[in-house]
Amino acid sequence: MNAKKLLIPVAVILAAAIVLFAASAGLAGTAEAKRAETIDQLLDYMLPGGGSYEYVANEDESSNILGSYVGSQGSVVESVVPGFMTDIHMLVGVQNDGLVTSVCILENNNTYGLGMKASSDWDFLVQLVDSKGDLAVGENVDAITGATISTNAVVNAVNAAQKYAAPAEEPSSGGLTGTADGFAGPITVEVTMDGDTITGVTVTSNSESAPSTALEDIPAAIVAANSPDVDVVAGATYTSQGIIDAVKNALENAGSAGGSGGLTGTAEGFAGPITVEVTMDGDTITGVTVTSNSESAPGTALEDIPAAIVAANSPDVDVVAGATYTSNGIIDAVKDAIGA
């Protein structure tokens, strides 16, 4: 058994048990107030470093999730799920990246020695902590003998809490991504373009602990200036510079995005510049279009080279005989677009 993993759930559940025992012993008249006080005391145990918390109620009345206590590092999700005989009232701590940090059973009055073990069986509970992704009894979680229903109820509640607190990211809208170091770790951004105009900058991940307003102000300033060359936010120099450098990284890696969302690149052909637009699906080149050129006798290179690059999923293709300069111009323009 991993004692380190047990530290948080044991401390949390023990604290909850003590307070709830006191409430049942003589504080029934203030049960709701004591419940709120208990949860307040548990939040820092369940999600260390979360700072102050704001409670956000779940508007879906059909859900078992009542709401969540949202902090800077993630959320503590409150649920009431049906056990074998009675409901199980519980909290689940989930980091912003979806990692489950803690599980606390606030109330469980199911069968003594069976369903109630879901509150105190450390071998069971430790399987739920430090998890990420779906848990399943019989696959990556061992059930409590004689308490299958309560076991499944708790596991399903943890899965639901994780999805509620850290929903799956939406598929990329086709923006350009870049990464650079901030104050506390890497900062990743997504940059959307319309031609040569920066239309949006979104910080998609970061580890900054005290970023001031830089996470909002710097992206807004870059869009307003249509350039990453903007002033840093006072008191958040490293975070500001990290965002700026990540945007530059996105633009440098992908070239500039064309109006249709493709990547554009330019290189010299036989008679002048050749510009291409390259469309990508992940790491796959799905299209190459020559958008402008000054070639006087390119032969079939303007059609054959783009088709060959798509077929090879690489700009490293043979030139067209009799159109070497035009062929190389297209090839080099594609390399310029994709940063090859």
Automatic annotation (TrEMBL):
Signal peptide: 1-22
Gene3D superfamilies found in the cross-reference section: 3.90.1010.20
Domain of life the protein comes from: Bacteria
Domain FMN-binding span(s) in chain numbering: 83-165, 182-254, 269-340
GO biological process: electron transport chain
Keywords annotated in UniProt: Electron transport, Flavoprotein, FMN, Phosphoprotein, Signal, Transport
One MF annotation (Gene Ontology) recorded for this entry: electron transfer activity
Transmembrane segments annotated in the record for this chain: none
Keyword Chaperone: no
Protein name: FMN-binding protein
Source organism (scientific name): Candidatus Scatomorpha merdipullorum
